[in-house]
Design brief:
This protein is α/β, with parallel strands linked by helices. It has two domains: 11-190 and 349-361, Rossmann fold, CATH 3.40.50; 209-345, Rossmann fold. 35% of the residues lie in helices and 15% in strands. It contains 14 helices and 13 strands. Strands 3-2-1-4-5-6-7 form a seven-stranded parallel β-sheet. It has a six-stranded parallel β-sheet with strand order 10-9-8-11-12-13, sandwiched between helices. Helix 8 (222-230) crosses helix 12 (321-329) and helix 10 (284-290) crosses helix 13 (337-345). The two termini are 13 Å apart.
Length: 364
């Protein structure tokens, strides 16, 4: 292990589960790359469901067969994740960095190992229950009611074992302070989509649409956006991450999954990105900005960190169909693409790595 004053060279990164291609997984991969992690620890690793870049590192799983059986929908594994993380062998390294939205911060660290949590958000199912339960049935609500007291106790004990917390946005830092009583440094997550990479056109889609990139979660606000565009037949919306459905309005196109090359094409040919999601940070506005595209987003959460009003995008002040319609109708036609790209440069992988290493070095 390193001694005080020497840089940490033996670093292990942990992430809740590697079963999806979401923003948190992109960030966890970039953390591992920037810190040259010795290994990545997770509860379940499904290589076919997450980013191929994790194959650059040895990945250690919990070994739980029950969790592996539920890897297609980890929300069903809620009762199993805390025990799985608690039973894993302690990490013996210079530094353990836990990329956590509620689980990996429960991984134990050996004596002498600095444990730092990069927090995407305190557990949404415990502290933002209304957001988490949107679109869920009564059975899920009853199960969460029964599990919450024990999970909340486990969660707070786990948070108390960290030497430091790092938040991905100012709003998450505020939640960490309110939930755990911990002051967290803010290190914004990085843009990891390769803007210069190849682009593959998506068939049947002409340029000039509004773009939404989101997983189908209630708090992501997609139904609100779709309802708004249903009342604007002269505008077009493309939604990435939503399964095609006959019930969608004629002017809304769903793309269930997009490759990296297709996603680059979709960003590059959009009029703007739009999102009414209750995001902790939200990387999609930064990704759109990297292609010189402005955004139309709700004025809350991490969007306040990533969006410069009237320079890189426009805010919607309330979560309603009428507000989205007003925002789309009034959306400017002329933007300074160079200024928009300059904003995305603030979130480069290099800047993220430097800030992350400085934050780790300050923890003793």
């Amino acid at each position: 292990m390193s001694t005080d004053g020497e840089p940490a060279t033996d670093i292990v990164v942990a992430h809740d589960y590697l079963t999806q291609r979401g923003g948190a997984e992109r960030v966890a991969l970039e953390i591992a790359r920037q810190l040259h992690a010795r290994e990545v620890v997770t509860s379940v690793h499904a290589p076919e469901q997450t980013f191929a870049g994790f194959d650059e590192f040895p990945v250690r799983e919990s070994g739980s067969r029950a969790l592996r059986a539920l890897r297609r929908d980890m929300r069903r594994a809620l009762p199993l994740l805390a025990p799985a993380w608690s039973r894993m062998a302690p990490v013996d390294a210079d530094v353990l960095v836990c990329s956590s939205s509620g689980w990996s911060h429960g991984l134990r660290a050996a004596e002498g190992t600095r444990k730092i949590v990069y927090c995407h958000n305190p557990a949404r199912w415990l502290y933002q229950r209304d957001d988490y339960l949107q679109g869920q049935n009564a059975g899920v609500r009853l199960a969460l009611d029964a599990l919450s007291p024990a999970l909340r106790s486990w969660d707070r004990r786990a948070a108390g074992t960290a030497h430091a917390y790092i938040a991905n946005s100012a709003s998450v830092a505020d939640r960490i302070r309110r939930v755990y009583g911990i002051d967290a440094e803010v290190v914004h997550p990085p843009l990891s989509l390769d803007v210069e990479g190849a682009q593959d056109p998506v068939g049947g889609i002409a340029p000039g649409y509004f773009l939404a990139v989101s997983r189908p979660r209630g708090y992501k606000g997609m139904s609100l956006v779709i309802d708004a565009f249903a009342r604007m037949p002269d505008e077009r919306l493309v939604v990435v991450g939503l399964a095609p459905s006959r019930t969608l309005p004629a002017n809304v196109t769903a793309v269930a999954q997009a490759s990296e090359a297709e996603l680059r094409w979709l960003y590059g040919n959009a009029r703007a990105l739009t999102s009414m999601s209750r995001e902790d940070f939200g990387l999609t506005p930064v990704e759109a900005n990297a292609f010189g595209r402005p955004v139309l987003v709700v004025r809350r959460g991490g969007f306040l960190d990533s969006t410069v009003e009237d320079v890189t995008g426009v805010f919607v002040d309330e979560e309603s169909v009428d507000a989205v319609i007003r925002g789309v109708r009034a959306f400017p036609g002329d933007w300074d693409a160079d200024a928009i790209r300059a904003n995305a440069d603030r979130f480069s992988a290099e800047s993220f790595g430097e800030s992350l290493r400085d934050a780790i070095a300050s923890v003793r």
